[in-house]
């Protein structure tokens, strides 16, 4: 399909149905099966059904996926402190503080994560499968029950917040720095590293932004390299999404590049 590069199967389906509907003699509907994840387009007036792909399925469902995400944060390791394979924790090296507990209970995988008291009740009231921390201080810990009712992005955000709470995290400082980039401006990885107090960690900025737990509020698309070039594989929406978001901010993108002299952000500390 022309112009469909980077689209998910569901996005492809919506585009295809829209294109077919223009001048078509029949109506088309998109549907997907629960078990196979196949995305299909079907005519309502003809017995025609076309499978155009499978939906993306990166939801966190297994212990391995949860542990791998926890271990993707810097300076972490896995441990079974009770010599019981049902209890597997992810800790931070040095302090040995745990920020992710995993265990099976009542037929579901459970995750214990540390939570900011300001957010504790928000998570519990938003999702019935987020409950006070099991076997932990219920003022500061929540338990996430992986029963399929919580969006993957929110699970990842809660784990990331737990990590930040038990560490003096450069990652957290990087996210706070990115939040300071105003609409209509971009900053380089090096600038963000300096703003986060880690001027030699430009590479770490890229790693942190790739795991951005809250892209709606941490505008990682406003970060470019030292030449003003956009990311070749923007993690939140495909290769064209970063350019689209920058243009929506009023920034001109030419040849996958931004003019830093015109749009570059200069933090107050660098003036």
Characteristic key phrases:
about 270 residues; alpha+beta; Aspartate Aminotransferase, domain 1; Arc Repressor Mutant, subunit A; 3-stranded antiparallel sheet; 11 strands
Structure in words:
Helices cover 31% and strands 20% of the residues. It has 271 residues and is of the alpha+beta class. The chain folds into 3 domains: 9-54, no CATH class; 63-166, Aspartate Aminotransferase, domain 1; 170-270, Orthogonal Bundle (Arc Repressor Mutant, subunit A), CATH 1.10.10.10. The strands form 3 sheets. It has a 6-stranded antiparallel sheet with strand order 4-5-6-7-9-8, covered by helices on one side. It has a 3-stranded antiparallel sheet with strand order 1-2-3, with helices on one face. The longest helix is centred in the middle third of the chain and has 15 residues, at 152-166. The protein is elongated. It starts with 8 loop residues before the first helix and ends in an 8-residue tail after the last helix. Mean pLDDT is 81; it is low at 1-57.
